[in-house]
């Protein structure tokens, strides 16, 4: 059925369907990686894709083809916000899309609302934000808009998320579709020493690492606290965000600043090299809807210690076998013991690597794109 759908939609005699992928900020993060992969896949299937961002947040963001912005930066005043919304509406009206796919909670609520006013295209909202990251007003707006039909479909990326939404109104739940994230293989056959030289990281020490937005919800302070009890360990953090200053102050307070390495934001193309540096990937997050960074790390062969969250147990498993070590990351002693176990138990590390190999087929980009094609066909 999927092959016939793809054939129908890529028929050269048929006009191209135009799809807008609408995001909040342009940066190198998980949600943006999903739209990059989805846009590339839809282009390959004959769609014309326009990437539309509210504003550009990161200078290092490598924008895909056909990208537009609604503002030069995050709007800081009511007037700047109105200008951004006006520009968003103009871009959508001019594009005349056949469908609009919105991402993240502000992308869904703001973008979905403006799309309904500016064009007649169906709106497909992608829920990639945990409930913890949404304020009550935004969450309430999402529930109302989803229930009243502002969104034709609402995609969720894990079965755990579907459970979280079980108490939502029936009219909201009737629009929900489960589409697991796909991901690019981030494994790299590169000696660890050479990889570390590229990122100016210590060559001869145990190196822990995490790739994540520097935000309190990611609980990276738990990873930093590990260094205080293990003087031989180093930690590399790849990412940017509002929590950086607090994390640096914590490292100073614990007297571990010399063993904490802020790599900064890195592109998707650089991620494989960063993961090749690591002995252990540490992911002490408080909440996730999927955990793309942890999936990429485990699949790349980096033994991983992650928060014991139901969604991560669901996502980081293959045929019932764990692809990571799960631990109560709020307990420093347990987190430290789990990392030590990974570093010393080679049999365990090899077992996790072997189990994680199946993640590539479980979360293939092709499957993700095919499922979005089916949703688009229904919506259009």
Kindly estimate the percentage of residues that lie in beta strands according to DSSP.
15-25%
Per CATH, the architecture of the largest domain is 3-Layer(aba) Sandwich
CATH superfamily of the largest domain: Glycogen Phosphorylase B
How many separate structural domains? 2
CATH topology (level 3) name of the largest domain = Rossmann fold
- Percent in helix: 40-55%
Biggest sheet, open or closed, and with what strands and sense?
Answer: 7 strands, parallel
| Low-pLDDT residue intervals, each spanning 5 or more residues | 1-11
Our Rg estimate from Cα atoms comes to 21 Å
Which class best fits the helix and strand makeup? alpha/beta
Number of strands: 15
Shape: globular
Q: Give the neighbour order of strands across the main sheet.
A: 3-2-1-4-5-6-7
Total of DSSP H or I helical runs spanning 4+ residues: 17
Average pLDDT reading? 92
CATH class of the largest domain: Alpha Beta
Describe this structure in words.
With 380 residues, the protein is of the alpha/beta class. The protein has 17 helices and 15 strands. The protein has helices at 2-9, 30-44, 78-95, 105-118, 136-148, 159-164, 170-173, 192-198, 220-229, 244-254, 268-275, 292-299, 310-315, 332-344, 346-356, 359-362, 365-379, and strands at residues 18-26, 48-56, 67-71, 99-103, 123-127, 153-156, 176-178, 206-211, 233-238, 260-264, 280-283, 304-307, 317-318, 321-322, 325-327. Helix 3 crosses helix 4 (105-118), helix 4 (105-118) packs across helix 5 (136-148) and helix 9 (220-229) packs parallel to helix 10. The two termini are 18 Å apart.
